[in-house]
Design goal:
With 144 residues, the protein is mainly alpha-helical. It contains five helices and three strands. It is 67% helix and 6% strand. Residues 136-144 have low confidence and may be disordered.
Length: 144
């Protein structure tokens, strides 16, 4: 399967399924890995558009999680000094990913900088996936 077929399949998958956060993050990782193999703007643009749709969905789901939950204790049973929202750093990383993907999509980045920018985007999406798949933190619903 070539990368164009992969992107089309991922678009279809996004419209048909309601993914949880770790699965969305993994799909973003897959798209950034495809992006690393792109060598021209015409190859990058469809991948960036699809990645944009996934990042937007991931951003919405992260925001939804933050409004429903907050951290009540840390994994090492130490009391928290301030109220922390679940996925606060992940939300920031989503913003960075969306901004960088937008730059790649609309700008004519020269061939020398393209691998660095796509590599950075790849690293950020992997950090998001690591956050979402990391050690489980006990959360409680604010409305309880």
């Amino acid at each position: 399967m070539n990368s164009k077929e992969s992107v089309n399949q991922l678009y279809s998958e996004l419209s048909l399924n309601n993914f949880d956060l770790p699965v969305l993050a993994e799909r973003c990782n897959l798209l950034t890995e495809i992006l690393l193999d792109c060598h021209s703007l015409s190859q990058m643009q469809p991948v960036c558009r699809c990645l944009s749709a996934y990042l937007d969905t991931l951003q919405r789901e992260v925001a939804k999680s933050m409004t429903d939950f907050y951290v009540v204790e840390s994994a090492d049973d130490q009391p928290l000094k301030r109220k922390e929202w679940l996925l606060e750093d992940t939300e920031t990383l989503c913003d960075y990913s969306r901004a960088l993907n937008h730059v790649l999509l609309i700008s004519h980045v020269d061939g020398e900088m393209r691998p660095h920018l796509t590599g950075l985007l790849h690293d950020i999406t992997h950090a998001i996936a690591d956050d979402l798949n990391g050690p489980q933190i006990q959360v409680t619903n604010r409305s309880l």
